[in-house]
Amino acid sequence: MLAVSVALTATPLWAQEADDPPAADQQDEMRRPGRLLRLRLPITGSADSAFRSIVQRTKTRLLTDYDGEDRPVIVIEFAPLAEGDGFGQGTDFERAFSLARYLTSDELAGIKTVAFIPRTIKGHGVLVALACEEIAMAPTAELGEAGIDEDPTRPIEPAVIEAYRQIARARRTAPEAVAIGLVDRNTEVLEVETESSIEYVEREDLEEVEQDETVIRTTPLFANGSMGIFTAREGRMFGAVKYVVEDRESLAGLLRLDSDALAEDAALVADWRPMFYTIEGPITAKTPGRTRRLVDGAIDNDGANWIGLRINSSGGSRTYALDLASYVASLGNDQRRSVAYVPEEASGVSALVALSADQLVLGRDAILGGGEPEPLDEVQLIPLRDSIKESLAPSTPHTWSLLMAMVDPDLEVYRYTNTQTGAEQLFCETEADEQADANDWRQGDAITTPGEVLRLTGEDAVSLGIATHVVDNVEELNQIYGFQSTPREVQTTWSLELAEALASPGVTVLLLVIAFAGIYFELHTPGLGIGGFVAAVALLLFFWSKALHGTADWLEVLLFVGGIVAIMMEIFVLPGVGIFGLGGALMVVASLVLAGQHRLVPRSPEEFAELQTSLAVVATAGALMVVAALLLRRYLPKIPILNDMMLAGPEGEELAQLNYRESLAEYSHLVGKQGVTTTPLMPSGRAEIDGELVDVTAGGQVIDRGVAIEVVSARGSRVEVRQVTS
């Protein structure tokens, strides 16, 4: 009979163990060794064999020189990748069954296995969880729908059902009927209450139960037609889940393990592809963008999954340090790990960057934090705290109190101990009160000094659980992570160096002057395109350098192009209106100013200084462009070879006569005469008629440049022409 009984008259042992952990003062005497291993889902290819090797090495380590009574613990944390729904679907059944049989075999005698489910798990990874002796789940996690990857139009293979039955029978983590219901949507599982117990049976076995027991109540647990799935609370009801925990620290307390026992052992993780990037000196506006481009390049091009950041900095800009810290916090995921290595110093705001990595390794004489903090008034403090609390801290392994203590000298941070689990955290009083189990946290000693930002040595950081290791040199770090040699250093590229040189204020001014001089030259020459080509290259270099520098994006490019189009419409399509010309000019200026600053709206002193620099660059370039235009207009027509490309303006007696005629606005003497257009007529433009440059209109026609025309009428200053046809 496929059933399991739970006595109604006795409290199960697991409930006592989960709800009544040992008192805090007894825990140190009851500690036992343990290790955490992360099992990434889905399990495909040879992932099961690789994980078996890791488990075997971990077992050897735990049992070496250990003679305690309690078995060492291996906690397997199930980590579904982000692809798809992020629930671990796609696991091969054969791979999962192979690993499940290994976990239930005699090879792991002497070791206790615990499955930790912090997030919802679906697919055949569920079978591996059932193969562990105990299951711990987060309150919001779910476990089930093991057959979600099977063809829903066909019955589940009998071999698959038998595998789940075999693992459930071998481990007794979950009732057999429940295990079958998790994978087979055609199995209806019932909760049957009898006079002596609660049993979980398949619908087809209900009659057998009724023959042996008096059935009081029958409740469907998993309905026919849908695969079973249960929450942590539901799993505890029928004995599948032993612990409901929020995090690793709480689980460590319940399992009577050291608080750091459930930190993943880096040397046991296979297939690291490591890299190092060095952040040297004060953090400036260039640092976040440069770091992002070089590190992302190593990840994309080389497949780096161990991101080492060697930090040696005395601080720098708070604004840009927060930007860099946010990027570092985003590096770690289920497939990558970020490690900050501080051999000497990460003081001031650079400490935020170091604390944002997944793990922190300090040199033995290194200093974390300290230094002279930037003055903070209330207007600056509130948004800074909100940014760290809401955005940065949730992505790091640390509390927001610890991060704020690195920049706020008035914040008092204490060591807190959870009286129920023994877990320790660093909180200010405000954050401690914000905890869901605030009454369970007992305040200890302060770790901050009034009036000073937090400053820690390597040993201090390790004792507080902030750093994972203290090393004397990089060779020791290599040993910790199992590297045969020091990871390669990511070096800057020639393109990045060129982009940063072009993005400097002086070169930026030069590029803008060249670009607009080229545009001016193109508009005043018959049309070889030299000016346009030079302008295009200069603008391309300008926006490319700003994009790599991290200050320009598509917004600035679109604003510039849109502004130029609007100005062209003002000149050639709707002359005299003024709206397109003014609006286009404002768009061009706005694009150039925004291309020189990191934020659209500046907030910090550094950002306002950046705005001032950007405005100064654009203003200087504008002034030099006016000078360049005057020089080109005056001297270009007199330069040999180039004088045929640009018409010289009238001078001397000719200029005086032209001014006299224009003052009288009299062009009747040109009626009937022919000339050549010097600009496109759309329909207005300019033409050379009888040796004079005259503003003309084509009466609604569009005439290209260099086309023969004839004056048909002249009324005051309005000269109307038509195209001469052969």
Automatic annotation (TrEMBL):
Residues spanning the membrane: 502-521, 528-545, 551-569, 576-595, 615-636
Keyword Transmembrane helix: yes
Domain NfeD integral membrane: 507-631
Protein's membrane topology: Multi-pass membrane protein
Localization in the cell: Membrane
Span of domain NfeD-like C-terminal: 669-722
GO CC field: plasma membrane
Keyword terms, alphabetized: Membrane, Transmembrane, Transmembrane helix
Cross-referenced Gene3D superfamilies: 2-enoyl-CoA Hydratase, Chain A, domain 1, Nucleic acid-binding proteins
Protein name listed in UniProt: NfeD-like C-terminal domain-containing protein
High-level lineage: Bacteria, Pseudomonadati, Planctomycetota, Planctomycetia, Pirellulales
